C-alpha cells in the first residue's frame, strides 16, 4: 500500500497523505452538522475533496474569507455583488463559497463542477441556487451572455496548459459584454514549493505544471507567474485588477479580475 501511495501521489509526501486520512476519519465521526447560517455541512469525504482537510470549521471559515476576498476585489473597481442579477461559481465544489452569497445578494446563483457527487450534494442542500456538472474540457450548458459575474477560485491551479485558454474563452462566452470574471492562481507566494528548475522556468514567465495527467484533481498543481497571465490568458479581456496574495480563503493565491470587452 505504501509503495502504491508513493507512486501515485509522489511529491505530496506520506506525511500529508496521513494527515488528510486522519482528518477524513475524524470528520466521519462528526455525523451531520449545520453551520451558523443554518445550512448543512457536507460530509468529511466531500470537504476533503475541496479543501484537502475534513475540518468543517475551515470549510465554513475559508469559504467566508474567499467570499470576502471577492467582495474586496469587486469593491476596488466600484462593483458589488449586490448589483448583479446573475452569478456563476465555476468549480463550486460543495458550495464552500456560494453558500455565503444568499444573505447579501438577490442575484440568481449558479454553480458548476466536474465532480458529480459534489454537485448532487449542492442540489440537495443548497436549494437557493442552481447546479450542474461540467466535463473536463469546455463547454458549459449556459447561454451566451448569461452572467454578469463569474468566478473560479483555485480552478486554473488544477488545469494543464492546454485547457487554460479554452476555458477562459468559454467563460468569456457566457459573460455579458462588460461582465467580469475573477480567477485565483498560485503565484509568488508558492515559490518555496518549486524545485530549482521549476523556479527558473517560472522566473522566465512560463507556467509550471505538476501531474498534468491528473487534470481537474488536487493532484494536478499549476503555478502562474503574472507575466504568463498577461501574455497568454487575458486574451479578449481587459485586466481590471490584479492583486498578489489577495485570495485569503485560498492560501493567499493571486487574484485577477477581468472585464469582458465589447
What does this structure look like?
The protein is of the alpha/beta class and 262 residues long. The protein has a single domain (66-260), classed as Rossmann fold (3-Layer(aba) Sandwich). 35% of the residues lie in helices and 24% in strands. The chain has helices at residues 2-9, 14-28, 44-51, 56-76, 116-125, 161-173, 196-203, 226-233, and strands at residues 33-34, 40-41, 86-90, 108-113, 129-133, 147-152, 175-185, 208-210, 221-223, 237-247, 253-260. It has a 7-stranded mixed β-sheet with strand order 5-4-3-6-7-11-10. A hairpin with a 5-residue loop joins strand 1 (33-34) and strand 2 (40-41). The radius of gyration is 18 Å and the shape is globular. The model is unreliable at 1-9 and 11-32 (pLDDT under 50).
> Helix and strand string, N-terminal first?
HHEEHHEEHEEHEHEEHEE
How many strand elements?
11
Strand content: 15-25%
CATH architecture annotation name: 3-Layer(aba) Sandwich
Query: Low-confidence stretches at least 5 residues in length (pLDDT < 50)?
Result: 1-9, 11-32
What is the domain tally?
1
- Major sheet, described briefly? 7 strands, mixed
General shape? globular
> What is the name of the CATH topology?
Rossmann fold
Measured as a percent range, the helix fraction is: 25-40%
Query: Helical segment tally?
Result: 8
CATH superfamily: Vaccinia Virus protein VP39
Summarize the structure.
This protein is an alpha/beta fold and 262 residues long.
List the helices and strands and how they pair.
Elements (H helix, E strand, L loop, with lengths): L1 H8 L4 H15 L4 E2 L5 E2 L2 H8 L4 H21 L9 E5 L17 E6 L2 H10 L3 E5 L13 E6 L8 H13 L1 E11 L10 H8 L4 E3 L10 E3 L2 H8 L3 E11 L5 E8 L2
Amino acid at each position: 500500500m505504501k509503495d502504491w501511495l508513493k507512486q501515485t501521489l509522489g511529491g505530496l509526501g506520506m506525511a500529508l497523505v496521513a494527515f488528510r486520512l486522519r482528518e477524513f476519519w475524524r470528520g466521519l465521526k462528526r455525523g451531520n452538522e449545520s453551520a451558523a447560517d443554518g445550512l448543512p455541512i457536507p460530509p468529511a469525504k466531500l470537504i476533503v475533496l475541496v479543501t484537502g482537510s475534513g475540518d468543517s470549521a475551515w470549510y465554513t471559515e475559508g469559504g467566508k474569507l474567499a467570499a470576502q476576498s471577492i467582495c474586496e476585489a469587486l469593491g476596488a473597481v466600484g462593483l458589488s455583488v449586490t448589483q448583479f442579477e446573475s452569478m456563476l461559481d465555476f468549480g463550486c465544489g460543495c458550495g464552500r463559497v456560494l453558500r455565503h452569497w444568499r444573505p447579501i445578494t438577490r442575484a440568481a446563483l449558479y454553480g458548476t463542477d466536474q465532480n458529480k457527487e459534489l454537485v448532487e450534494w449542492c442540489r440537495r442542500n443548497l436549494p437557493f441556487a442552481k447546479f450542474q456538472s461540467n466535463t473536463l474540457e469546455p463547454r458549459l450548458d449556459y447561454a451566451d451572455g448569461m452572467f454578469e459575474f463569474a468566478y473560479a477560485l483555485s480552478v486554473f491551479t488544477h488545469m494543464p496548459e492546454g485547457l487554460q485558454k479554452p476555458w477562459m474563452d468559454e467563460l468569456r462566452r457566457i459573460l455579458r459584454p462588460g461582465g467580469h470574471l475573477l480567477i485565483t492562481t498560485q503565484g509568488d507566494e508558492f515559490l518555496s514549493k518549486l524545485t530549482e528548475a521549476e523556479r527558473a522556468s517560472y522566473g522566465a514567465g512560463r507556467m509550471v505544471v505538476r501531474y498534468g495527467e491528473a487534470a481537474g484533481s488536487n493532484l494536478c498543481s499549476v503555478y502562474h507567474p503574472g507575466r504568463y497571465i498577461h501574455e497568454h490568458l487575458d486574451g479578449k479581456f481587459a485586466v481590471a485588477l490584479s492583486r498578489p496574495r489577495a485570495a485569503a480563503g485560498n492560501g493567499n493565491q493571486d487574484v485577477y479580475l477581468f472585464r469582458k470587452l465589447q
